[in-house]
Design a protein that fits this description.
Blueprint: H1 20-23, H2 28-39, H3 44-47, E1 52-57, H4 69-82, E2 86-91, H5 105-121, E3 126-131, H6 136-147, E4 151-155, E5 162-164, E6 167-169, H7 173-183, H8 189-198, H9 211-221, H10 237-256, H11 260-263, H12 266-278, H13 284-296, H14 302-309, H15 326-331, H16 334-339, H17 358-362, E7 387-391, E8 394-400, E9 411-419, H18 422-428, E10 441-444, H19 465-469, E11 477-479, E12 491-493, E13 513-517, E14 522-526, H20 529-538, H21 549-557
Parallel strand pairs: 1-2, 1-3, 3-4, 9-10, 10-11, 11-12
Antiparallel strand pairs: 5-6, 7-8, 8-12, 9-13, 13-14
Helix pairs in contact: 4-10, 5-6, 6-13, 9-12, 12-13, 12-14
The structure holds FE2/S2 (inorganic) cluster (FES).
Length: about 575
Amino acid sequence: MATHCSSDNPQRDPKQLRSHRWFGPDDLRSFGHRSRLKGMGFDDIDYRDRPIIGLLNTWSDLNTCHSHFRERAQELRRGILQAGGFPVEVPVMSLGEMLMKPTTMLYRNMLAMETEEVLRCHPLDAAVLMGGCDKTVPAMIMGAISADIPVIFFPAGPMLKARWKTETLGSGSDAWKFWAERCAGNLCDSDWTDIENCIARSAGTCMTMGTASTMACIAEAMGLTLPGASSIPAVVAEHSRLAVATGRRAVELEWQNLRPSQIVDARTIDNAIITQLTIGGSTNAIVHILAMAGRCGIPLTLDRFDELSEKVPVLADLRPSGRFLMEDFHHAGGLAALMTRLTDILNLDCPTINGCTLGEQIAGSESLDNNIIRTRDNPLWPTGGTCVLRGNLAPDGCVLKTVAAEKRLLQHRGPALVFDNYPQLKAQINSPDLPVTPDTVLILRSAGPQGAPGFPEWGMLPIPQKLLAAGVRDMVRISDARMSGTSYGTCVLHVSPESHAGGPLALVQTGDEIELDVQNRRLHWHVSDSELARRRSAYQPPAERWTRGYQKLFDQHVTQANQGCDFDFLHGRTPGAEPDIF
Ligand code: FES
């Protein structure tokens, strides 16, 4: 593991510490703050004039990917104490992909708001953001950008590789693959149980290049982690050492007063997009990058993703697009090694929380395995591994992970088979009477940010059982949903505007001809203007469903997929009120 670049510790006057406002003054409120810490067993010497470092911990018994975070919190504390800081652990909402319904995406913005407010309302000088499972990463970074207090992101790290018989298993991707074989009648009960027993081998996030690993790599590329942090497996000793080093760095960050606003700008966001593209990363990252840019007030549209996609090759040969897993990627040199192959495209002069530029941070890294980290003249995919499509079905855009699709389907025209919602799809998809052929274009609506609600990962529509039995493994599928970063197939996602908001997807009917033309970045619905006008005039918008609480707030304020699905009132860098007047 590389260490950070700068250990300069320009001791600011401790009276400049943010926490000094709580503990320094000789007044009744400060007396109360100090006396209650004494009641917990801390003397002045423990915390006075020292940076107070919050450990925002997303540990939960219901987040399988973060089950090692209690130990890591202790190791982070060790590093903070070594560097002269005072660690305080603050639990925040945990978003575990595997056990939350309807989808963690419904709560990404809630965790982002919680992160922002927890940072703001407490006597914290800096913080370590302990996240990993998919949405925890963008949520905590979004909140930290808005709070603008020095932070360092500590990724949970991927699970160890799993093994079944002679096969190496990757969570998520291989679950989808073997489920298809089971539905096709090719996998017995005993094998299926064996796979269930071994596919999740340890604590940590999914070990494919799913959303968690994609977002961890993006956090590293944005300069928000220690170098090399994104791929260190969750349960190896190196990950414990990463925790201790992250704790030490958090204290230095405060003395150097390095804030997200000094790190994240439009060039950083470009680096995030370039990273998502070259690692063959999750399409979910597109939504999250849009949201992070929105928090900074950086104007960003889907067009920028497609512009960069034209010049960025996919160099990481990782599942679900390629062959290897995160542990392999780490041993091959990890993200820094990959980035040294893109020095002509990345913005290397971007600052990082490590006190050096991105270019200085990755200097000297090299790939140790060109099968895993491909060379520029032998990429996994030359350019356009993820593309943005537009057309009369998606006027505001939609996305397709071309590198994870069957190439023959990238130019395709076929009749639509429309499912109005997910329950209908579930009830009908395996019916022997389903009017479907391999050329059919499966369409799911009511699965977007407002429609589901929460924008669930339903976009990898299941292949109908009768086609699976006939050997079909991919079809063109279109929806206003997302799909898991571990998923694959010719799945057109994030159709905007979504059907629930009256987008054209609401008006498609079974039998309409749909044309996918990836080369020209086009998704076309063959419908006449007069027929479209007739359907539009007959359209009935859905009734309001959410009458209270967070779901009502979400429904009223969430933006569309092409805008990042953040709440409209959280856009921009407008600073929140610091709580120093009370
Ligand atoms: Fe947590 Fe995949 S379920 S990262």
